[in-house]
Design a protein that fits this description.
The complex is a heterodimer. By secondary structure, chain A is α+β, with helices and mostly antiparallel strands. Chain A has one domain (about 10-35, about 60-115). Chain A has helices at about 15-25, 70-80, 110-115; strands at about 10-15, 30, 35, 60-65, 90-95, 100-105. In chain A, strands 1, 2, 3, 4, 5 and 6 form a 6-stranded antiparallel β-sheet that branches. Helix content of chain B is about 55%, strand content about 10%. In chain B, helix 1 packs parallel to helix 3 (about 55-80), helix 4 (about 80-105) crosses helix 17 and helix 7 (about 170-200) crosses helix 15. The radius of gyration of chain B is 24 Å and the shape is globular. Classes of the chains: A alpha+beta, B alpha+beta. At the A-B interface, strand 1, strand 3 and strand 4 of A face helix 3, helix 4, helix 5, helix 6 and helix 7 of B.
């Protein structure tokens, strides 16, 4: 199914442990950037009077899958990592346009993953 | 991000966004802000207008107390080694800004933000970047700073077995929260403080965000539970020195993580629990532990960090490539830090004991205040105020083509007693207009929780017009991701459920509306076109579209119409938080 898919770039935003696992994936034709903090060190501190919660840190990586096979394998392996998420989500974005492609969680189905990685 | 008051960590100014409140509340909001922010906090209790259980008094009390919370941040971000380390990180960007602009002008006349992308071969390939020496060097500094924040957020297992997330930032929050409570009790009275707390709970605030510190205090025998007035209370006074000692990290060479330092200090404390007579005794004991663990007491660590900072300042002063504004503000920061350290040494209770802080030090802390109006105000700022961010349309008539979003005055709010303040407000004004927002772009593109979204838009235009360089955004960092539900809760609360749809002007039901963030309207050319049309499609509408950076309240009917448009849905996805 993924064999015919063209090479593509994707970005994944997730908790640091998930990002670390994505970076450790061994997939031929896959290049993963260094993780970057999604939030900013220049953010104003949490509002004292508001319901604004102290949010867990999230990181983002840009991924370059140079072959269709690499895209397919990435999708498959990301799917295997999803059960490790505890209540958090993974946001998949097109890093070139910034368009959000979808949101995955521990409850996402194979169909959800397929739609994102093999549109 | 919507907040009535917030401290900007890049410039240490206190942002005040009064326009979130209803127009008819303007007088009390201004009076309360002035009293709470200056050296007359006791006046705040006289401004509470009604019985303690009324929503209005709750709002007034929580508003005043949140100003005191931010004042504690102001202190800790200057005095402690962790706070100063964070601030020096921004100064590094300010110092490099001139060279960076020069380098961009000499090459492709473009800076891609955030600049840590230049260090990464994958991001360079995806975005077609050509790394240059200066921009890559700055990218390296910023990447290291981001890694520090990630590493600092770790789980701490207490002696009780409870796991909690701690970080330097969480410690700053806990310190500010304890001081906010203490200040509220002192300046608003016990009933006023309770009123403030009830109000914050209504807004979704939960004390559970500071539970880790409570556990830590109980584990180390630094916090005591007592029943007062039939209420279960927790005395956390003795916990304060632990948090302050933890933030006295070693910030030169191999930088210590506050989370690690706190873990070690609390573990050593809990090994030999003892009854301390007061916070000074706790501080002395912590100094001994720090000496055993890291060869320096917390006091010595503070001295060493200040000396290190003096050395950095000396180097910067003679560097011709460093912009004057960076030199002047760093010097001002360093001198104020010196004064606060002297006050701390003379009377440690001012910093370590919440009630002392609230009574003696807090009224004398005087951060510079920036008055924000996200909707834009036509004309010039009030007399005596400097315009920080504003706009003058070259094609428009003067009356509707000139406005301001942010302004500040060195004399407002006034402080009569000797205060701890920056000596050169005009230099901080200059920093705010260029270097501070430019640094934010370099650090994280436009993806920030800022008090005033217009500042990032403004600096991008400024870079193009004045510096002759294009700012290109990494699409992943092009827009802040707003938590619209939280903004909706805040608006509903602050406006006491008095809300109308910004699109059709009809009153909205208290829990049946959506919020649209200002970047939503600026996401794409189609969105701009739609917004222009919503403002009448004429010249006045064009100017209003540029001017309005407020959040929009939208009724379900208008929201439904809007989300039928694919480009509006895309804009919503790009500018709102789903995590």
């Amino acid at each position: 199914m993924g064999e015919g898919t063209k090479a593509r770039a994707l970005a994944i935003e997730a908790p640091p442990a998930f990002i670390e696992a994505v970076r450790a994936l061994s997939v031929e034709g896959l290049a993963v950037s260094e993780p970057s903090l999604a939030g900013s060190s220049a953010d104003i501190l949490d509002s004292p009077a508001g319901g604004d919660r102290i949010r867990p840190i999230r990181e983002v990586v840009t991924i370059l899958a140079r072959t269709g096979k690499a895209v397919a394998e990435l999708g498959h392996k990301v799917g295997q990592l999803l059960p490790t998420l505890s209540g958090q989500v993974v946001v998949v974005t097109d890093p070139v346009t910034g368009r959000r492609l979808g949101v995955l969680s521990a409850g996402s189905t194979e169909e959800d993953i397929r739609k994102l990685f093999w549109p | 991000m919507i907040s009535t008051v917030s401290l900007d960590p890049a410039s240490l100014v206190l942002n005040f966004e009064g326009s979130i409140f209803r127009e008819q509340d303007g007088d009390w909001v201004n009076d309360m802000f002035t009293a709470a922010c200056s050296d007359t906090p006791l006046l705040c209790s006289t401004l509470l207008d009604g019985p303690y259980d009324s929503p209005k008094v709750g709002l007034q009390a929580s508003f005043a107390s949140s100003i005191w919370h931010e004042k504690r941040h102001f202190l800790d971000l200057i005095l402690t080694n962790y706070g100063a380390f964070r601030m020096r990180h921004f100064f590094q960007v300010y110092c490099n800004l001139g060279g960076l602009i020069h380098e961009a002008r000499e090459s492709d006349k473009e800076i891609f933000c955030p600049v840590d992308a230049y260090l990464d071969p994958v991001r360079c390939e995806v975005h077609g970047l050509n790394p240059r020496p200066r921009v890559s060097a700055l990218g390296g500094i910023l990447r290291k700073a981001k890694q520090f924040l990630v590493e600092d957020e770790r789980t701490l297992t207490l002696s009780s077995g409870t796991e909690c997330m701690v970080s330097g930032e969480a410690q700053l929050e806990a310190l500010a929260w304890y001081c906010q409570q203490s200040a509220a009790q002192l300046h608003l009275g016990l009933e006023g403080a309770r009123s403030a707390f009830r109000d914050m709970q209504k807004l979704g605030f939960s004390e559970s965000r500071y539970e880790w510190a409570t556990y830590l205090g109980l584990g180390a025998k630094l916090a005591q539970r007592k029943v007062i007035d039939k209420r279960d209370t927790l005395n956390v006074t003795a916990l304060m020195p632990l948090l302050v000692a933890s933030l006295m990290i070693r910030a030169s060479g191999k930088v210590q993580l506050p989370a690690n330092r706190l873990g070690r200090l609390s573990m050593e404390l809990s090994k030999e629990p003892r009854a301390f007579k007061g916070v000074e005794e706790v501080w002395d004991h912590l100094n001994k532990i720090a000496k055993q663990q890291w060869d320096r007491t917390a006091d010595e660590e503070l001295n060493a960090d200040y000396d290190h900072e003096s050395g950095l300042l000396d180097k910067i002063e003679v560097d011709e490539g460093v912009p004057d504004v960076a030199k002047a503000t760093f010097r001002d920061f360093h001198e104020l830090r010196g004064k606060l350290i002297a006050a701390f040494k003379e009377n440690p209770l001012l910093v370590l004991e919440p009630a002392h802080f609230a009574a003696k030090l807090m009224p004398r802390l005087r951060p510079l205040v920036v008055l924000n109006k996200s909707g834009g105000v036509l004309g010039l700022p009030p007399k005596g105020f400097w315009r920080i961010y504003g706009y003058m349309d070259p094609e428009a008539k003067e009356e509707d083509g000139r406005w301001w979003w942010s302004s500040m005055s060195p004399d407002w709010p006034p402080n009569k007693s000797g205060s701890f303040a920056f000596a050169h407000p005009e230099k901080w004004r200059d920093l705010l207009t260029e270097a501070a927002p430019a640094a934010k772009l370099l650090i994280n593109g436009r993806r920030h929780k800022t008090a005033m979204g217009a500042e990032l838009h403004f600096i991008q235009r400024w870079a193009e017009a004045q510096w002759g360089i294009q700012i290109r955004q990494d699409p992943l960092f092009e827009f802040p991701r707003e938590d619209c539900e939280e903004v909706a809760r805040t608006l509903r609360h602050v406006r006491l459920d008095d809300l109308v749809c910004d699109s059709c002007s009809k009153k909205v039901a208290e829990d049946k509306f959506s919020v649209l963030p200002p970047w939503f309207f600026r996401h794409s050319p189609q969105m701009l076109q739609l917004t222009h049309k919503a403002y009448g499609g004429n010249e006045a509408g064009r100017l209003r579209m540029i001017r309005d950076w407020a959040y929009w309240v939208v009724c379900p009917k208008c929201m439904d119409m809007l989300t039928k448009l694919p480009f509006a849905r895309e804009a919503l996805e790009a500018t709102t938080d789903v995590t």
